[in-house]
């Protein structure tokens, strides 16, 4: 199996890729067409072997036969890819081209609609999860704050010297200021009576 993978990588992919590059660079139409036929056949072979590997991998010399097939496709003497393309692939694709194009357009439209549909559903699920997490987080925060006593809150603020809540301090200061005003008022009346 490892020999097949290595052979296919070198002879089935890298070698043809390099010669395809050379054909494009030289702008030789004959070479360009030859390598395009090879890549079409190789794509079909790769698709077919995905399924045949499942069912035929137990067959004796299965991987060796695949190596021989790739070598036959590449060989300039046998011109295997050219032969397969001209005898089988081109006539089949030419007769079914309109149906294949229609199927591809429909598949493209369906996949776009499915992508939009699942995208909207995904956003709705994410938004719901975010709202639920925020509401649970807010509930946990309010419960945490309720568990604090006034003593805990004053030590958190840094008012370790005053243990009395600030509202109580305000009340006592307002009571002390009232008697002073009443005394000064009575003193003012007493002093006005003396004059």
Automatic annotation (TrEMBL):
One Gene Ontology term of the molecular function aspect: microtubule binding
Ranges annotated as spanning the membrane: 6-24, 36-61
UniProt xrefs under Pfam families: TB2_DP1_HVA22
GO biological process: endoplasmic reticulum tubular network organization
Region (Disordered): 155-195
Biased composition (Low complexity): 160-174
Superkingdom of the organism of origin: Eukaryota
Cell compartment(s), UniProt: Membrane
GO CC annotation, single: endoplasmic reticulum membrane
Keywords, sorted A to Z: Membrane, Transmembrane, Transmembrane helix
Membrane topology according to the record: Multi-pass membrane protein
Keyword Membrane appears in the UniProt entry: yes
Biased composition (Polar residues): 175-195
Family: Belongs to the DP1 family.
Name of protein: Receptor expression-enhancing protein
């Amino acid at each position: 199996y490892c020999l097949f993978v290595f052979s296919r990588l070198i002879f089935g992919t890298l070698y043809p890729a390099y010669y395809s590059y050379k054909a494009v660079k030289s702008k030789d139409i004959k070479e360009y067409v030859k390598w395009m036929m090879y890549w079409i056949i190789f794509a079909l072979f790769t698709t077919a072997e995905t399924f045949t590997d499942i069912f035929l991998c137990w067959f004796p010399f299965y991987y060796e036969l695949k190596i021989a097939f790739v070598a036959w496709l590449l060989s300039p003497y046998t011109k295997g890819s050219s032969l397969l393309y001209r005898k089988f692939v081109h006539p089949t694709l030419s007769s079914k081209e309109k149906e294949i194009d229609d199927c591809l357009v429909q598949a493209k439209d369906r996949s776009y609609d499915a992508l939009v549909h699942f995208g909207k559903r995904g956003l709705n699920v994410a938004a719901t999860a975010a709202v639920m997490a925020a509401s649970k987080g807010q509930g946990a925060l309010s419960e945490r704050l309720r568990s604090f006593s006034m003593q805990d809150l004053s030590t958190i603020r840094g008012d370790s010297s005053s243990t009395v809540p600030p509202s109580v301090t305000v009340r006592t200061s307002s009571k002390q200021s009232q008697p002073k005003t009443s005394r000064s008022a009575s003193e003012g009346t007493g002093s006005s009576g003396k004059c």
